[in-house]
Design goal:
- The protein has an 8-stranded mixed β-sheet with strand order 8-9-10-7-11-12-13-14, covered by helices on one side. It has a 6-stranded parallel β-sheet with strand order 3-2-1-4-5-6, with helices on both faces.
- It is built from 10 helices and 14 strands.
- The longest helix has 16 residues.
- The protein folds into 2 domains: 139 residues, 3-Layer(aba) Sandwich (Rossmann fold), CATH 3.40.50.720; 158 residues, Dihydrodipicolinate Reductase, domain 2.
- Helix 8 packs across helix 10.
- By secondary structure, it is α/β, with parallel strands linked by helices.
């Protein structure tokens, strides 16, 4: 048996997501430094005395021993931190959407050329067990040719939500379309392919904020596969629903754990007589595996010199769609 490969890791941004990343670094990841302007957040991650703490991320990326930098900051910081970490020769794991807006992701794509430095974008929903199982069913041919997707994703916010960073356009870059909507777009692209026709409508119905609280999209591929998507901050009961329709049946994905309910997948398989379909159901109680598996996948990309997926190009395609809706 060979020696276990280890990666020295630094986390920039120690809020809820940064803390979750620190929890799921696995056996290959060794946290040696973290940075946050809020020292209390950094202390929540740096439970061991030998972990370096910074309030300035520029100092963290100077550490020569670092192999991977996790970027879990507000959207307006993502692009610069990714770029500067790349220039230092560090592999980077950046949270979705990868940049604040389409202009910034175009800047990253233009500059990042070294394929030996791996950059992965954290669209962790791809790693939920229901999504992985659905991919396998589709790959087997059991669903037939894919036709369209219907996706809904939302929550109802909380008291004071209009004062949080996600409600501020200068910091977040956009509202619910960029937040949960980006996950719906990414999953739809993964299943159906790139969309060349984009139609959408955004509006702020309830929250007193400068960004949208609802987004409605119709996306179409060159061969007329369609995604009907709705992302909402006025979904008073938290909801995640993704339905994938094929010529031989339907996959119904619902829930993602916690307040969104038990993660489940039902495969409704069409019968020869086209009467009541046969239903096969899977329930997934441990939804935390998505975080662990996503990071392990990135470690393997580095070890075997593979292009990560999702990557900056995937973030580019998602932000391109979002940009088109915002412009319209």
């Amino acid at each position: 048996m060979g020696r276990q490969i280890k990666f020295n890791i630094g986390i920039i941004g120690c809020g809820l997501i940064g803390q979750r990343r620190a929890k799921h670094l696995g056996k290959k990841g060794v946290l040696i430094a973290c940075a946050d302007t809020n020292i209390k957040n950094a202390n929540k991650i740096a439970l061991k005395k030998n972990i370096l703490i910074f309030t300035n991320w520029e100092k963290l990326i100077e550490i020569k021993e670092l192999d991977i930098i996790f970027v879990s900051t507000y959207h307006n910081k993502l692009c610069n931190i990714v770029l500067e970490s790349y220039k230092k020769g560090k592999h980077v794991f950046v949270e979705k959407p990868g940049a604040k807006n389409f202009i910034e992701i175009k800047r990253l794509i233009k500059i990042v050329k070294n394929k030996n430095i791996k950059i992965k974008v954290g669209f962790n929903h791809r790693y939920h067990q229901s999504i992985v199982k659905s991919k396998n069913i589709i790959k087997s041919g059991a669903l037939g040719n894919l036709m369209y997707i219907r996706g809904r994703y939302g929550h109802g916010g909380r008291l004071g939500y209009e004062n949080e960073w996600r409600a501020k356009k200068k910091i977040a870059g956009g509202g619910e379309l960029l937040d949960q909507g980006s996950h719906l777009i990414d999953l739809s692209r993964m299943f159906l392919g790139n969309f060349n026709k984009v139609s959408g409508f955004i509006n702020t119905y309830f929250w007193k904020m400068s960004v949208e609280d609802n987004a409605f999209l119709t996306l179409r591929t060159a061969n007329d596969r369609v995604a009907f998507l709705h992302a909402s901050w006025t979904e008073w009961k938290n909801l995640f629903s993704l339905e994938i329709f094929g010529t031989k049946g339907k996959l119904d994905i619902s829930g993602k754990g916690g307040s969104y309910g038990l993660e489940q997948l039902i495969f409704y398989k069409m019968t020869k007589k086209m009467n009541k379909p046969k239903a096969q159901k899977w329930s997934f109680k441990d939804n935390d595996t998505s975080w662990k598996n996503e990071i392990n996948d990135f470690y393997n990309d580095i070890i075997f010199n593979k292009e990560p997926s999702p990557n900056l190009k995937d973030a580019y395609e998602t932000l391109k769609i979002i940009n088109q809706v915002y412009k319209s």
